[in-house]
Amino acid sequence: MSLADIVKLMDDNAKKGKRAGIIVAAEGCGSTSKLALEMQQQTESEVRLSILGYAQRGGSPTTRSRLLASLFAEKAVDLICQGQGNMAVGWQNGTIMGFDLDNAANGTKSIDLRLLQVADMLAT
Fold first, then answer.
1. Residue 89 and residue 33: Cα distance in Å, rounded?
2. pTM (2 decimals)?
């Protein structure tokens, strides 16, 4: 999409009462910092830039990591298309599922101490 198309979409969504949106840019698409600044200057919307690679990358992704990311993204888009907002996507009992974001953020889950012991053993 061109910058003009993005700005128009943001303005149209704001007029519809939407308070937030997410724009995903692929690596190599250009300067996302410059894009975010231009979007901020051309709209009345607040624009925040988050580069996920810095937060989540701990080395080159494995094939499994890439597959899971693609499957999680597919599920997230499917939930959005069904009109289900405020959802988190996760893996449970071998299935990719959507979860209510409040429940996901506020719930607790016990850890498998055996896995912690294996991780400790492999790290030494």
1. 27
2. 0.45
